[in-house]
Amino acid sequence: MGEPIPTDRDRAIYHRTGHYLTDVAELLLRDGYPVISVSSCQPEAMGGLEDDGGGYVDFAPEVLAQVNGAPKDALELHFEWDTSSGWALIVEVLKAKPVARWMGAGLTPAREKVAGFLLAGLLDFRSAGSEDRPYYRKPGRDIDGLAERLAPFHKKGSFNDRFRRARSATAERLAIDAVLAEGTVLSIPARAGELAPLQHLVHFGAMSDDLREVAVRLIADLKARAVPTADKSHMETVAAHSTGVDQAKQVPRTNGG
Q1: Sequence-distant (≥ 6) Cβ neighbours of residue 91 within 8 angstroms
Q2: I need a surface site. Which of 116, 180, 202, 216 has the fewest CB within 10 A?
Q3: For the chain, what is the radius of gyration of the CA atoms?
């Protein structure tokens, strides 16, 4: 059997779910939380009794470090939105089942409530929401009703494009504000091999042309100020804080074709 052919209803659920999650992501970005992606269940995957849509809002790794009471060996933090149970804050755990805290405020609560739930999870993950999963509708039932329920979130255009624009605008705002606001002069010992990859990341990373130009010039400024040193304390500082180097050693290399 081939893959099921998505119906217009399936596509509508996929599209509206993505825009609903992007509504939430835009607010979180505005509040300073580094959201890295938004996803919705592909319509080709829908149609089963337990699979009628859903989506995810993924956070950058540093957000996990802000979680008080996170499970031991936590690896990742993200939001899950389920078409039967609404929002859950999920922590992925090494060699164990993910730990979920369910928001329990209805199927499609306002984005401000979802943002508040994230804050509660950061303050104390173990007491945020509930470990008991709520059900607001039966999975696989009344899919037409689900599509209608999501209709208020329908917007023209791709939710992926909308999210990318929002993320780029947030990065630009934060970067420009930071560059213009702080005038304190710092002495930062760095390896030459830490400045060079920043240049590569800027050239290949997705950002606006204006923001890329700012980043390129900032790195050029840093390189112009960099002076080789044999200062023992500086060398010890660099050796003690080289987590990026350690992480790079673990990245699998691919051969360009």
Answers
A1: 64, 67, 70, 71, 74, 75, 76, 77, 98, 99, 100, 125
A2: 180
A3: 22
CA atoms within 13 A on the CB side of 251: 9
Question: Model-level pTM?
Answer: 0.82
Per-residue tokens: 224: 């112009």
* Residue 229 near residue 190 (C-beta atoms within 8 A): no
pLDDT digits (tens, 9 = 90+) for 159-199: 999 999 999 889 888 888 888 887 788 888 888 888 888 88
CA dihedral sign, ordered 76, 79, 83, 85: positive
CA distances from 95 to 73, 74, 75, 80, 102 (A): 9, 10, 10, 20, 22
CB burial string 87-100: b at 16+ within 10 A, e below: bbbbbbbeeeeebb
pLDDT tens digits for range 215-245: 888 888 888 888 888 888 888 888 888 888 8
Residue with token string 């992480």: 247
Query: Is residue 157 within 8 Å of residue 24, measured between CB atoms?
Result: no
